[in-house]
């Protein structure tokens, strides 16, 4: 299965260079301002991200307009403690009428735009905009009817695994593939906001890929770019990270979003990580060959006359590396030179007395 980058490169202006496909997640960081949303698109494009992602939902597609019981966030550790779910989604939503301006701005800036739909109606809206791909959010992995509807578009799919069990992931994968998805990427995701590196468990990523035979990557809620770099080193082909222009301005996801300079560093460092993987190689690459001169080798350490015996004093293991390898040192001690030799001559077999009795 082609990676997401390889698949999208067939129809969009993307380099198929083996680097991770980097997604800047806007989420609700626009703070209900279209002007700010468009500025986020501009800033994301300037960082070198491959795509800007939004979320497509309405409060009514997410929950019920109730203020009691489980419809209010009661966990004091939550960033949204005390919020009513319906009101939170009102603040976080990206209005339907903003989608086309956001998609158009992304196209102008040379960056892809797509979304996480949370309902079938959302998929219909995104199809009308010819979204190039779809993301199933981690909490929606168990919504198999939604997974099926997205898969029926035939577009590449990304599914965040979040808290899904191996069985639930398998159900989502089977649903997607059987409904027509030809390119699927599963993202390791820790559903805490923000997440810590200690709770990220990146070694799960290759297991996900090997178990289900699909691409894998990371939806990262940690701060900084270290975890994303590690994910790249483990073969992650997609990296998603929340993005904001200025954390101090606030936003529903501001606490675990990267600012432009930080996101640029993420792009740079994951690219370096991908480039560094290379292939299994021993013996020095072409660029290293000049460094062979810096290795130790055997040199004549003082002027010698024909017939003089090589000793530990006059046969030196030093730099540069133009003489015989140091592994021959013991075998050469006690041998005689076959001609006069000056100090600083690289040791070679031709310097030896050819008479075997000279040993």
Find the CATH topology of the largest domain.
TIM Barrel
What is the CA-based Rg, rounded?
A: 30 Å
Name the shape in a single word: elongated
Q: How many structural domains?
A: 2
Topology as a string of helices (H) and strands (E): HEHEHHHEHEHEHEHEHEHEEH
Distance between the termini: 65 Å
Which CATH top level class of the largest domain fits?
A: Alpha Beta
Assign the CATH architecture of the largest domain. Answer: Alpha-Beta Barrel
Polypeptide structure, described:
This protein is of the alpha/beta class and 359 residues long. It has 2 domains: 4-58 and 93-277, Alpha-Beta Barrel (TIM Barrel), CATH 3.20.20; 286-358, Antifreeze-like/N-acetylneuraminic acid synthase C-terminal domain (Type Iii Antifreeze Protein Isoform Hplc 12, Alpha-Beta Complex), CATH 3.90.1210. It is 31% helix and 14% strand. It contains 12 helices and 10 strands. It has helices at residues 4-9, 34-47, 59-62, 85-92, 99-108, 120-128, 144-151, 166-178, 204-212, 226-233, 260-277, 329-332; strands at 21-25, 51-56, 112-117, 134-136, 157-160, 184-189, 215-220, 238-242, 297-300, 315-318. The chain has an 8-stranded parallel beta sheet with strand order 3-2-1-8-7-6-5-4. Helix 2 (34-47) links the parallel strand 1 and strand 2. The longest helix has 18 residues, at 260-277. The radius of gyration is 30 Å and the shape is elongated.
């Amino acid at each position: 299965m082609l990676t997401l980058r390889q698949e999208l490169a067939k129809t969009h202006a993307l380099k198929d260079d083996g680097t991770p496909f980097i997604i800047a997640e806007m989420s609700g960081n626009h703070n209900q301002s279209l002007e700010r949303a468009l500025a986020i698109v501009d800033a994301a494009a300037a960082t070198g991200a491959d795509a800007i992602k939004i979320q497509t939902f309405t409060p009514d597609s997410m929950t019920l307009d109730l203020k009691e019981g489980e419809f209010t966030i009661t966990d004091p550790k939550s960033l949204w403690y005390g919020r009513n779910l319906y009101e939170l989604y009102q603040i976080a939503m990206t209005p339907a009428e903003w989608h086309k301006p956001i998609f158009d701005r992304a196209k102008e800036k040379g960056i892809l735009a797509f979304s996480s739909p949370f309902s079938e109606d959302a998929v219909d809206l995104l199809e009308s905009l010819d979204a190039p791909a779809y993301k199933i959010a981690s909490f929606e992995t168990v919504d198999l009817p939604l997974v099926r509807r997205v898969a029926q578009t035939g577009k590449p799919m990304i599914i965040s695994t979040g808290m899904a069990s191996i069985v639930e992931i398998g159900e989502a994968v089977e649903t997607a593939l059987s409904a027509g998805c030809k390119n699927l990427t599963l993202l390791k995701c820790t559903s805490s906001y923000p997440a810590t590196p200690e709770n990220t468990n990146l070694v799960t990523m290759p297991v996900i890929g090997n178990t289900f035979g699909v691409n894998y990557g990371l939806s990262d809620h940690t701060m900084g770019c270290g975890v994303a770099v590690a994910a790249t080193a483990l073969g992650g082909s997609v990296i998603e990270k929340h993005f904001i222009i200025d954390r101090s301005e606030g936003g529903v996801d501001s606490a675990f979003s990267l600012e432009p300079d930080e996101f640029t560093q993420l792009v740079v460092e994951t690219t370096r990580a991908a480039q560094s993987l290379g292939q299994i190689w021993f013996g020095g690459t072409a660029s290293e060959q000049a460094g062979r001169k810096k290795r130790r080798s055997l040199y004549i350490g003082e002027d010698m006359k024909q017939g003089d015996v090589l000793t530990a004093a006059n046969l030196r293991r030093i730099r540069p590396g133009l003489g015989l390898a140091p592994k021959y040192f013991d075998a050469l001690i006690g041998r005689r030179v076959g001609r006069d030799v000056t100090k600083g001559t690289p040791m070679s077999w031709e310097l030896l007395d050819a008479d075997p009795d000279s040993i």
